[in-house]
Specification:
Phage tail protein beta-alpha-beta fold; mainly beta; 8% helix; ion transport; 9 helices; 42 strands; signaling receptor activity; disordered N terminus; 2 domains; TonB-dep_rcpt-like
């Protein structure tokens, strides 16, 4: 068929025409009715022609196109419910083609006009996994087609009834993110706090995040013992805010973070990256992937990374190494086996503490380079993991997935910190820790028919285990002669601690069974229901200065519930409401001698989501409420208590707020990620301390938070250049109390930090990029600590700094 001649419109205009004008052109009633019909699809990625032909048959539409037009192109596939226009938009994503509706209800394909810069930039190839599992690599996108962190179902952001952020590979590259800490700093509604040099902690909606998953499998996240994951091995990071008990089991109603690894590719690729930055920051990466046999049935990937960097803080240095390797093997046309492993080692020359406050909490105005430790201090971390996954696709479109992960973490620490209870002192400690984690899961998923409609079901069971051993000793190194204004990091010899002073070993086991279904009672209405049963056990042995104690507790058949409703208002917008909960075991006992019930976090959420330009842009607005109940409090009247202390489940904390977020492409040259969060977390009830009722739960975290990141590619003769900007703003944070009889207040007023990016595509293989963070060199406290008397753990924010990166793609 002849090629059509089209005016040179922008891709944005073409997308809008495709999604909005096409239905209006279908004048005949039958055509209009057909355009509005939504059907459920599960079309695998593959050759574009085959995918289009199958879609045409299942959608019941006539689709006209030249075979030459589709020759050599691959479609990312299609899953979920779509109308014909929306389904075609997704099938054609990344192909350079678009579909146009005709008056008789049929569709025809045409080639999009070349975007600015396309002649000089490497073409994007969307591989088979890109929509099936949400892979973001090589899409150039700030969003993803699907994710499963919230429900274990591969759903789009719009189809998931909770607040979601996805940090894609493109966004991580654009903003020069290196570790999970960088991801958290750039994610809406998430807070990073550092109570010491190498002690990152993550908070969301007022609560501490305790767990993390890797490709959906549970793993430990404890900033004291486990290094912050190196992003070189990950395709994206998926974050669901609020309670996530359905997929994670025990935990707090804060958020779930899922680290999704890079996978082998069907075509060979080799990426080399080198960076140099402020304070002697040098980083290199090698990333190779592709087929390992002629048939392409065996594929591999390997990532190597090394970084050596100093800091704006005196003495501090970090050396980080990463090795990651994975293999995929097609055991048959419907079966695939994946295996792999990683090794990350972080040698950190850093102290426990940070910057101290005066005894009354006032700012001592110390230099940002201040280091109140010694040159023999360290906080080294080593992480190893292996993983395996077997997937089988049955002929009836049901899937079987067996996964396993084993991780080993070692921590070696020797450090000090300052205390100031109206006089200076300096404790020190030396510890070694070993953390062994295991996670295994099996689930089946697929469609089923009920009352003449297609629905989806997931059934699964899992096992998690965490075994930690901590041993070491501590003591006071100095309590006189401390001069914080004339510190000498070489003034004290390395001490010898009694490493038999403390020995603590705990073992946590969690066994689970879960079921989730997505019901489709109407083309515009979806209902997600889920439940989970957990068996949880905690055992610990502790020896402190020769005194040994043993304790433990268990939770049997805890029931977690999930319910969500999504209603499509039109082609682009959906409203939703959801409820989910999560349990957190606690070790306190009541007057009966039995353990108190677990703390229960109940998450209520309503919102609206928008999806535009075939899924290239996502937007959302949500209202949330979290009630955390059964919080243990020491009983005021201990009469009749059979043990030393009895507790009551009398505490309740409520967190309420609003979240606004937009991410994706506003046009082919402009990527955007922005989010605003307001969180009000307060004590609603505390029978043992009524004065606490109505006060903020934790004033060290901001009520208001805004984060923005953009990248824009220039037009015309400057199309090889791109520019970007970002801002992170938060409201005031503070801590108040009494320190050795003296009232104190430590605080950080509201502040904003700006960042910029400048990139140049020298050729289809070579890319150069400059990132400047804290552009205006804002001086601020990133973390406050909790008390001026203990720890000296306030942290200055990083001053203005730059990173120059060169990438070469074969």
């Amino acid at each position: 068929m002849p090629h059509r001649t089209l005016p040179r419109l922008s891709l944005l205009a073409l997308a809008v025409a495709q999604l909005t004008l096409a239905p209006a052109l279908a004048a005949e009633p039958a055509a209009a009715a057909n355009a509005a019909v939504q059907r459920s699809y599960d079309i695998p990625a593959g050759p574009l022609e085959a995918a289009l032909n199958r879609f045409g048959r299942e959608a019941g539409i006539t689709l006209s196109f030249s075979t030459d037009l589709a020759a050599g192109l691959r479609s990312p596939g299609l899953q979920g419910s779509h109308d014909p226009a929306g389904g075609l938009a997704r099938l054609l994503q990344g192909t350079g083609l678009a579909a146009e509706a005709r008056g008789d209800g049929s569709y025809t394909l045409y080639r999009l006009p070349m975007s600015v810069g396309e002649a000089t930039l490497a073409p994007v190839t969307v591989m088979e996994q890109n929509v099936r599992d949400g892979t973001t690599e090589d899409t150039g996108s700030y969003t993803t087609g699907s994710m499963s962190t919230a429900t274990r179902m591969n759903l789009s952001i719009r189809e998931t009834p909770q607040s979601i952020s996805v940090l894609t590979r493109q966004r991580m590259d654009d903003q020069a993110m290196e570790t999970l800490e960088d991801v958290v700093e750039n994610t809406p509604g998430i807070i990073l706090s550092k109570a010491g040099g190498e002690r990152p902690a993550i908070y969301a909606r007022g609560f501490w995040l305790q767990k993390m998953t890797y490709d959906g499998l549970a793993g430990a996240y404890d900033g004291d013992y486990v290094g912050s994951p190196n992003l070189a091995m990950y395709d994206r990071v998926e974050i669901v805010r609020g309670a996530t008990g359905l997929t994670s089991g025990a935990g707090t109603p804060s958020a779930a973070i899922n680290m999704v690894r890079k996978k082998p590719t069907r075509d060979f690729q080799l990426n080399l990256t080198g960076s140099i930055g402020s304070w002697d920051n040098y980083r290199t990466e090698v990333d190779a992937a592709g087929p390992l046999n002629q048939q392409g049935s065996l594929r591999g990937r390997a990532v190597l990374s090394y970084q050596d960097k100093d800091s704006f803080i005196d003495v501090v240095n970090n050396k980080s190494s990463l090795v990651y390797a994975t293999l995929e093997a097609d055991l048959g046309p419907r079966t695939m086996l994946s295996v792999g492993g990683s090794y990350q080692k972080d040698d950190n020359r850093n102290t426990w503490g940070g910057v101290p406050w005066a005894a009354d909490g006032s700012d001592l105005h110390l230099p940002r380079s201040s280091y109140f430790g010694y040159d023999w201090e360290y906080w080294d971390k080593e992480n190893k993991e292996v993983f395996i996954e077997l997937q089988h696709r049955f002929a009836n479109d049901w899937n079987l997935r067996l996964t396993g992960r084993k991780g080993w973490s070692d921590m070696a620490y020797l450090g000090t910190h300052l205390t100031n209870y109206n006089t200076w002192a300096q404790p020190g400690a030396e510890y070694d820790a070993y953390l062994d984690t295991s996670s295994y899961e099996i689930n089946v998923s697929g469609p089923f028919a009920l009352l003449g409609r297609q629905h989806e079901l997931v059934l699964g069971t899992s096992f998690q285990e965490s075994d930690r051993l901590l041993a070491g000793g501590q003591g006071i190194l100095r309590n006189t002669g401390i001069d914080i204004y004339n510190w000498d990091s070489g003034s004290l010899a390395r001490p010898a601690f009694d490493l038999s002073m403390l020995r603590n070993n705990y073992l946590i086991e969690q066994r689970s069974a879960y079921a989730t279904t997505r019901l489709n009672p109407h083309d515009d209405l979806k209902i997600i229901l889920g439940t989970r049963l957990d068996w949880y056990q905690y055992d610990t042995d502790t020896s402190w200065m020769g005194n040994a104690t043993t304790s433990g507790y268990k939770v049997t058949r805890n029931v977690t519930k999930y319910a969500g409703v999504i209603y499509d208002l039109n082609e682009h917008h959906s409203v939703y409401a959801s409820y989910t909960d999560i349990f957190e075991p606690q070790s306190q006992s009541g007057f009966s001698g039995e353990l108190l019930d677990p703390i229960l976090g109940k998450n209520y959420e309503i919102g609206i989501k928008g999806e535009y330009f075939g899924g290239a842009l996502n937007a959302s607005a949500a209202l949330f409420r979290i009630d955390q109940v059964n919080r243990a409090a020491l009983a005021q009247n201990q009469a009749g208590c059979p043990i030393n202390n009895c507790y009551e489940a009398s505490g309740k904390v409520r967190s309420e707020g609003v979240e606004l977020e937009v991410s994706g492409a506003l046009n082919p040259n402009l990527n955007l990620a922005a989010g605003y969060t307001y969180t009000d977390a307060t004590y609603v009830r505390n029978d043992t301390n009524t004065a606490q009722e109505g006060t903020r739960f934790d004033t060290a975290f901001p009520e208001h938070l805004f984060k923005l990141g953009t990248t824009y590619r220039l037009h015309g003769a400057l199309n090889q250049w791109r520019v970007g900007a970002g801002i992170q703003w938060q409201s005031e944070i503070y801590k108040e109390g009494v320190n050795a009889g003296t009232p104190f207040r430590i605080e950080q007023k509201a502040y904003a930090v700006a960042n910029i990016t400048l990139g140049y595509q020298a050729s289809k293989n070579v890319d150069l990029q400059l990132n400047v963070d804290n552009l205006f060199d804002k001086r601020y406290y990133h973390s406050l600590g909790s008390h001026p008397g203990w720890g000296g753990v306030a942290r200055y924010g990083t001053p203005r700094n730059f990173m120059l990166t060169a990438r070469y793609k074969f």
